[in-house]
Amino acid sequence: MKKNKVAFYTLGCKLNFAETDTIINKFLKKGYEYVKFRSFADIYIINTCSVTKNADKELKKLVRIAIKNNVNGFIVAIGCYSQVNPKEISLINGIDLIIGSKEKFNIINYLKNFSKKKNANIYSCSLKEYNMFIPSYSKLNRTRSFLKIQDGCDYKCSYCTIPKARGLSRSDNIKNIIKYAKNIIKQGIKEIVLTGVNIGDFGKIYNKKNKSNFLELIQAMEYYLNDIKRIRISSIEPNLLSDDIINFISKSKIFVNHFHIPLQSGSDEILNKMKRRYSKKIYLERIKKIFNIMPSACIGTDVIVGFPGEKEENFLETYSLLSELDISYLHVFPFSERKNTEAFFMKDSIPQEIRYKRSKILRKLSKKKKYNFYIKHINKKKNVLFENKKKSGFIYGYTDNYIRTKTNWKSELVNKIKNVTLLNVDNCGIMICK
């Protein structure tokens, strides 16, 4: 009997990747054949993102690719964008089915047949009905796994659609997370990345008092997960990154000294307009605390430029702060108007050309920051977890503090952690090691 072929493409964050893998596994258990997105498939499923307009454009591009691969392919959009703006997606030619954030985990139940539709069917519940936590972790990558520990967000940042896409903050319990982590370890995966929308808010369930917190979670993982080599924390809010968490990670045998701490703006005036829950002073304190006890730590950050009302002096405040801080890299985002957010209706919109100009300036700074961080480690010994892909005769990997490395291909290095010497940075910004 011929198996139906299903292809997936994931847009957006690490959490989306974890959830996609969970959904793929459900298809495999039902007898589907999983294939690459740029090949022939009976069903094409796109896990969407609602953060920026670029994600919307990417969805349209992926629909065109699917149609090119199979003009009769059944195309499904799932996830955040499908939850926030299903009617907008229904206007995209070629999409047959639109599934919201809750329904995506039961997508197979909505696939009655694969015949193309004139108008897309929409299944998307209200956020009040989205009141459960669905465990997820990725396992298609044999080197590292993204483990979902938390979902949703109670913050009301004025530019963000995520609370409307994923609902209130909620978490798995520590016992379950330990169980899933052990399952990951059994598959030979060496690194776990803790993911969520707002992981520092771990323990909260629908505005109820926390039964546990993020510090207790990572302490439990340190105690019970003796066989894992590395655990990496994804993005964590500066106001939730406590001294106790920083101190614990500095002494940990398995949690690595890599932090991603969103700044968004170096101007308190703009932070207030964004409705962020910290000040520039708090951010500075967190960075200084980390480097006082972990001088080789890697710290990345997110920055939004061109937010409504961001004057030149506000931007220069941000640039000055980032120039002075020991930040290792920046993720720079030009402000993107999203419907159903407070910022969408704000006055003093910044022209696109100024947003682009400011983005370019900060990306140039990021490149410089990353290079300076890398060269500080030249001639030092570091442990590198090597991946399973061969490219141009090289094998690639990451140090514990997130330095991208490469060395001559050796199959015996795949999915192994090796102590190497960092030699120099190549023209692509990758550290050569041996």
From TrEMBL:
Family: Belongs to the methylthiotransferase family. MtaB subfamily.
Pfam family membership, one: UPF0004
GO cellular component, one term: cytosol
UniProt KW tRNA processing keyword: yes
Organism: Candidatus Karelsulcia muelleri PSPU
Known role: Catalyzes the methylthiolation of N6-threonylcarbamoyladenosine (t(6)A), leading to the formation of 2-methylthio-N6-threonylcarbamoyladenosine (ms(2)t(6)A) at position 37 in tRNAs that read codons beginning with adenine.
PROSITE patterns for this protein: MTTASE_N, MTTASE_RADICAL, RADICAL_SAM
Protein name (record): Threonylcarbamoyladenosine tRNA methylthiotransferase MtaB
